[in-house]
Known about the structure:
The protein is an alpha+beta fold and about 230 residues long. It folds into 2 domains: about 30-65 and about 155-220, Cytidine Deaminase, domain 2 (3-Layer(aba) Sandwich); about 70-150, no CATH class. Helix content is about 45%, strand content about 20%. The chain has 7 helices and 6 strands, in the order H-E-E-H-H-H-H-H-E-H-E-E-E. The protein has helices spanning about 30-45, 70-80, 85-105, 110-125, 130-150, 160-165, 185-190; strands at about 50-55, 60-65, 170-180, 195-200, 205-215, 215-220. Strands 2-1-3-4-5-6 form a 6-stranded mixed beta sheet, with helices on both faces. A hairpin with a 2-residue loop joins strand 5 (about 205-215) and strand 6 (about 215-220). The longest helix is centred in the middle third of the chain and has 21 residues, at about 85-105.
Amino acid sequence: MRLRCLEAIVLSVFAGCVTPQVQPAPTTAENQHEFLELARHAREENIERGGVIVLQGNRQIFIEIENTIRKDNGLFQQYVDFNRPQDYLTLCEHIDAALSTRTRCEPKLRSYFTAEAAYIKMRLNGLQYISGEERLQLAAQLWRKYEHLVLHNMYKMNQEQYSAAERQGHITAVVHTHDNTGPSLQDEYLSTTIPQIVVRINPDDSLIIYSGICGKFGIMPKCINMAN
């Protein structure tokens, strides 16, 4: 019988929170080994990774789901090369999603992030009117800004893969990684609709796993030696 690690945290419901119908199950040692590998790969690539916990009968599994932002380097270059309107719209969707996330996490910088997002979208649209070296230089500048605003600060799940995971069982929590930081205000917000697990990897390769529901997070007990 698989030994489960009991989650020794009490998560309270704050005023106005609609308690998710599915409560997060305690993570297993197997889950936590998977989280460790997930977090290591995320740190190496400097792009958040994640997935979902699915309950199948009395068995709990972790399914990794692609972060669609991972493909934005190629998408950005594709837009620069071919000026396809759909590529521009997808990049703008990611910019808007990142803007929402960053301003919720750092409300004091709302004006800065809003201005950056507007500038990137405006100048991306303007690429179609210039060519040659000027176009390449502007594209390089915009990519640096896009990378800073979007690429390393957001986990955007592939919806087709999420739907496939739903067909495999009951999703009890969404998981994603953080590099040396705990849950953000955005994570607290997301946990009001579905439980969240934030996997923090520290510089010494150790993990801290946070579980959140209804805007409140606690630290989950360790089932494994996180530095292995």
